[in-house]
Amino acid sequence: MEFRMIRLVAMAALISASLSANASASQPDIDQLLGRAEAERSRSPDRLAASLAQLDELTAVASPTQKRRVQLLHAYQLVVTGKYQAATKLALSIYDESPEIPIKFRAALLVANSAAITRDFSLGLRHLEHAMGMIDNVPDAELRQQAYLVAAVLYNQYGQFTLGQHYAELLLEQDASPRNHCIAQQVRVEASFGLGTHLEDDSIAVAAIAECAAQNEPIPSNLMRGYLARRWASRGQTERAISLLQEHLAEVEATRYPWLIGEFHSQLAEYHLATGDLEASKQHAEITLKRGDKNSYLMPLVSAHRVLYEIALKNSDLATALDEYRQYAEADKARLDEVKAREFAFQLSRHELQQKNQSIELLQRQNDVLRLQQDLSKKSAQNNQLLTAMLLMILGVGAYWAYKVKRVQMMFRKQAQVDSLTGISNRGHFREEAEAHLARSKAANREAALVLLDLDNFKHINDRHGHATGDWVLKQVANACRAACREGDLFGRLGGEEFAILTCGGDLQAAERIAQQCRENLAAIDTTSIDHDQPITASFGCATTRLCGHGFENLFMHADRAMYRAKAEGRDRVCAHEERPVLVRAQAHA
């Protein structure tokens, strides 16, 4: 479910700098302007800019605390306008220099959000933890609620939807401000989508949208409209989804948030393509790419390139199709790398926290030893021997934890390369290894071949028997195909029900033999235990470097087309890339 990977970037900017004023005021006019700017910081970028211009003119008569509040508003304005690196730099300087805990706390929250947007995940998590460590010393209840909200948003972004939902519900149980309550509703709806719950009930999202719209909060309300449109489109209500997005597109454009704008246009491009309106689909895809920024969002770019690739195929424009497919593959790889980086950063953060606690414990033990050493300095040699034994014990503890750290690092490296369900290479690791094998084959003037396979009617198995059965089938398929591979062949799961085998030193006939053996092994899988009365089948596509060259993307594209041709010709068969390209309309995976 791809919507898990993408919904937080604009929302992180929205809530990052809750600047409710606690400081004592020496300049009432400045405080009034600050309150006005803080109230409008997410509702009206233009009014925020006008208020900041007035505040800048009063800098000479402002107190140091008021100046830092103005600086925080400038940092927030940088986030709103997409200048995330500059916003992070300014917020870090405020965090380092401010003696006031509330301002330091707000600056840490802003750093956590803007760093997450720029994919500096470790920096973001570290400052989120700094902020949560100060929360007991923050007197403002609304600001403490803001910290819970930021934690919920960031945990959603890191894919930890259970934690995100927990903090959102924790805030909803309190007497939160209308604005915080609105955003907490949005975060809870997002977590619900990420966890796959309440997918058949629109009432929660509709009520949350109405609440945020009543508070004049366009960003959270339109984020939820985007989720709702995806839900409707997944049910086949594509026209209804288009109508919803189109109705609020001007409102989204007015927010100036790159991610939200790109998301709306990319969804419209997808849905117009599904309804056959190629011109409208192309227009929205091109707007997505024009307005897009690889430092702002990735998923809309992936979707836009995929739409343009499919439009080019429908128009028989092979050159454009190849170029768009290449860009689609690059963007999708970047997206998957980002997901992996977020997951790794979260795990690394948990590990660093554990190490920190262990280091504190070790230091406490060392301090105990030092005190004992002072007390035992006047005692006999027997006591000295006891002290030595205690020191050796501490060294042993340190060595043990060093060993544990090394084991955890090795575990993380394996998790980054292996598909957790089937135990074979995941998409990213398969591609890296395949590119290296193809480079060696090219240098040695050896031929290589790629086999792609996609399970037939797999969605029917999931719908009829449940996802646990679907996972069982995927494991059986992985075992069956692994048995058909030759020694030295690469085998990986590309995602969902799609697998790939790269065989080096073999020609197209060797690839077809491997594919046929896989096909026979799949048919031999005993499905009686899951009460499935149909054999497991797949559609296979084969391509060879002799026809496609040693570039992975080109080899993958031709094998992919051959696989789609196998599906178009009736499934449960093997098709190979031929000398003359055969254009077959891409169909959705069964």
Give the overall shape, derived from the CA principal axes.
globular
Number of helices: 25
**CATH architect. name of the largest domain:** Alpha Horseshoe
In percent, how helical is the residue content? 55-70%
Helix/sheet category: mainly alpha
GO molecular function, one term: diguanylate cyclase activity
Organism: Lysobacter yangpyeongensis
Protein name: diguanylate cyclase
Transmembrane segments: 386-403
Give keywords.
Rev_trsase/Diguanyl_cyclase, Serine Threonine Protein Phosphatase 5, Tetratricopeptide repeat, 590 residues, transferase, five-stranded mixed β-sheet, diguanylate cyclase, 25 helices
Characterize the structure shown.
Keywords: Coiled coil, Membrane, Nucleotidyltransferase, Signal, Transferase, Transmembrane, Transmembrane helix. It catalyses: 2 GTP = 3',3'-c-di-GMP + 2 diphosphate. Its EC number is 2.7.7.65. GO terms for molecular function: diguanylate cyclase activity. It comes from Lysobacter yangpyeongensis. A hairpin with a 2-residue loop joins strand 2 and strand 3. A five-stranded mixed sheet has the order 2-3-1-4-5, sandwiched between helices. The protein is mostly helical and 590 residues long. It folds into four domains: 218 residues, Alpha Horseshoe (Serine Threonine Protein Phosphatase 5, Tetratricopeptide repeat), CATH 1.25.40.10; 79 residues, no CATH class; 80 residues; 150 residues, 2-Layer Sandwich (Alpha-Beta Plaits). 69% of the residues lie in helices and 5% in strands. It is globular, with a radius of gyration of 28 Å.
